[in-house]
Design goal:
4 helices; mainly alpha; flat; about 0% strand; single chain; about 110 residues
Length: about 110
């Protein structure tokens, strides 16, 4: 049962390593400036945005644990696990585009 979850976690660790190892190996000055930039950007996130990001990561993990797409049919996992996350972020992206193109009122 946990073999599939372990494979998914290994893939997540590999992906995270691809993003973070080059930064760790770069010069100290660049690492300090990029870390401060990341910290500054993360501190600007509102509570709702942080909740959205974390739930976007946790929801598919719980759905994968429940539906076990590596052993059974993958479509229920795609519809219930990944589908709502993709739809939610797509709607947010579309609404942000409409807000950006709307003329500002005085």
């Amino acid at each position: 049962m946990f073999a599939g979850i372990q494979e998914i976690l290994v893939l997540v660790v590999i992906i995270l390593a691809i993003f973070f190892v080059p930064r760790m190996l770069s010069k100290q000055e660049k690492a300090e400036s990029s870390n401060s930039l990341i910290a500054r950007n993360l501190s600007l996130l509102s509570g709702r945005m942080r909740l959205a990001v974390i739930s976007s990561l946790v929801w598919p993990l719980f759905a994968a644990g429940y539906f076990e797409p590596w052993e059974k049919d993958i479509f229920p996992f795609l519809y219930i696990g990944i589908g709502p996350v993709v739809c939610g972020w797509s709607i947010r992206w579309i609404l942000a585009g409409f807000r950006k193109s709307r003329p500002k009122q005085r």
